[in-house]
Amino acid sequence: DHEAAAARFDAALVLYRRIRDVLGEANCISSLGAIALRRSDHAAAAARFDAALVLYRRIGDVHGEANCIRSLGDIARQRSDHEAAAARFDAALVLYRRIGAVHGEANCIFSLGDIALRRSDHAVAAARFDAALVLYRRIGAVHGEANCISSLGDIARQRSDHEAAAARYDEALTLYQKFGYQHSIAEAMIRLGQAQCSAGEVQRRRANIQAGFAVYFQVAAIQDRALPGWQALHRALVCEDAVDAARHSAEARQAWTSIGRLDLVKDWLDILP
Predict the structure, then answer these.
(1) I want to staple 65 with a disulfide (CB 3.0 to 4.6 A). Which of 38, 56, 200, 263 is the partner?
(2) Cα(205)–Cα(194) distance, rounded to whole angstroms?
(3) In 3D, which of 161, 168, 160 has the Cα closest to residue 133?
(4) Cα–Cα distance between 113 and 117 in angstroms, integer?
(5) How far apart are CA 85 and CA 73, in angstroms?
(6) Residues 22, 59: contact at Cβ < 8 Å?
(7) DSSP state string for the chain
(8) CA–CA separation, 33 and 41 (whole Å)
(9) What are phi and psi of 85, to 5 degrees?
(10) Residues 6+ apart with CB under 8 A from 110
């Protein structure tokens, strides 16, 4: 509930500033940046993270500093500015390692793997995901573990190894379901359906894609500017007419491109069978 969350952070921000609590102020600003990022409002998100970064550095909070830098990397990654994103993740990785923040370290390694995957550098991507997977498992971060497994499925799918991809997606889905990560459950089901589509499992394909989108639309934020693209993608994947499917894919591409979500274009449209 982004609107309610933003109102709370704004209210807390006023109080932190009143008592000159810089850490609390920075945390609120960073949280407002996270909301803007989830809404795909990159300009507002970047402004918030930059402002919070200044405050974290002022008080020597290395963890907060690293989080902001990584979030700025996420913005660059969503815009498909891979060089800038990698530079941010590398910088944050150094800071996380300095303070022994294993979860942050794993997140950065995973993100660097994601960039390699988007560049179709499968060997580097797999090495990154495997390294991050070890760290996530060490600290019991199941969501990160599942993300790595799903991304290894993406590598298999890009290599047209649909059977291996489906196995990875199914493994990740089990972990997501075990801990109730609804948004990730939805995406894993859709990816599983796409892999099954390529393998010729038509009935299971349709069932998983429909079920995945049912979950996705149930938990998707209304304010998310990426939502129209997801709706168009849904129509494209369930449409039986090739011409209509292509039209809906073009609608999704236009919707996501218009808000700078080139990552979604790459992940969901450029690899459509």
Answers:
(1) 56
(2) 6
(3) 168
(4) 6
(5) 4
(6) yes
(7) -HHHHHHHHHHHHHHHHHTT-HHHHHHHHHHHHHHHHHTT-HHHHHHHHHHHHHHHHHHT-HHHHHHHHHHHHHHHHHTT-HHHHHHHHHHHHHHHHHHT-HHHHHHHHHHHHHHHHHTT-HHHHHHHHHHHHHHHHHHT-HHHHHHHHHHHHHHHHHTT-HHHHHHHHHHHHHHHHHHT-HHHHHHHHHHHHHHHHHTT-HHHHHHHHHHHHHHHHHHS-TT-TTHHHHHHHHHHHH--SHHHHHHHHHHHHHHHHHTT-HHHIIIIITT--
(8) 9
(9) -65, -45
(10) 128, 129, 132, 144, 147, 148, 151
Question: Tokens for 218?
Answer: 């149930």
Residue type, 115: I
Residue 255, both tokens: 């919707």
